[in-house]
Inverse folding.
């Protein structure tokens, strides 16, 4: 970020009055350009014991498997975003069953939210961002071909809880140092 | 947003290739300037039966009472942000006890997260953004002088669950049409 998006003046980086952090500040129109983390919303879509995954048709992580998820848009809610992303990437309608995981990914300034979801039908088909969409039994999940660490964490929790049928919210943080390299975004 | 923050060229508003929404796109450097909702993080800080509130020293809602909360910063986690905001606004350290509410506020493009928290001591004192910080017994909460609808919702749930001692996560959406005018941000 080099120029003011309001008036095009070159930005200065300094601590604004009554603040404690350096921000991009416009010396002309005085706008402070804050930068904040983004929210990624997605689902764990299930049909009986099986879980729906999408194989990515785009970078990053082309060809690897993921839960349907993407950036939350303005003027929508977290639940609307999760349903929309599932429809866009897997072509299928779901009914949400509660927030299942909230995972901070501070090294890329993101927070990932996954909702438990039930498929309303089996007429799924890959959207533009997916090569393939299919259901996996818990024992067949392609653990070594998953795209993202938050997907890996969420699926591990979910599969371990499928045995008991008791699901609960998981709040966690991605520790970059503890993450296998192939899983880092 | 009128100019590219990377190269200062006047932006165009159009649907980028492989997208379905209008975005601010730079015709010169081709950067797509996405705009996404922001996260507000805060706490419900308790000491035995009492709840800590801060009286706002800044606009909006100057002079009204709020739970300590503010915008999540980059390079921090949601929990770190909630602890930081509590320290900045109330001058006190807390120990978090889990996510308590997640409330979408789509008309201002925000998602508010409140964590249950226990005060580690009683040496609180107002930061720059607070006129006053004090503990309230549930029956004394100033319901008609609360600053924000998400604070009102979270406190209502919390106080009603204090009777039973059984707290659970609340996921909700602010419905602008159903909100008393004085509570709208």
């Amino acid at each position: 970020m080099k120029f003011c998006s309001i008036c095009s003046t070159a930005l200065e980086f300094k601590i604004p009055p009554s603040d404690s952090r350096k921000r991009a500040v416009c010396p002309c129109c005085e706008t402070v350009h804050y930068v904040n983390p983004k929210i990624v919303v997605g689902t764990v879509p299930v049909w009986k014991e099986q879980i729906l995954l999408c194989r990515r048709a785009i970078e990053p992580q082309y060809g690897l498997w993921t839960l349907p998820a993407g950036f939350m848009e303005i003027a929508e809610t977290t639940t609307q975003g999760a349903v929309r992303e599932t429809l866009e990437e897997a072509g299928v309608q779901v009914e949400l069953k509660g927030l299942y995981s909230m995972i901070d990914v501070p090294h890329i300034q993101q927070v990932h939210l996954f909702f438990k979801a039930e498929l309303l039908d089996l007429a799924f088909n890959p959207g533009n961002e997916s090569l393939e969409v299919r259901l996996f039994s818990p024992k067949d999940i392609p653990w070594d071909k998953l795209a993202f660490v938050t997907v890996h964490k969420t699926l591990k929790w979910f599969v371990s809880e499928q045995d008991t049928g008791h699901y609960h919210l998981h709040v966690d943080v991605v520790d970059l140092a503890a993450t296998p390299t192939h899983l880092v975004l």
In short: Chain A touches chain B at residues 1-8, 10-11, 18, 20-21, 33-39, 71-79, 88, 98-99, 102, 104, 106, 109, 111, 128, 169, 171, 173 (CB under 8 Å).
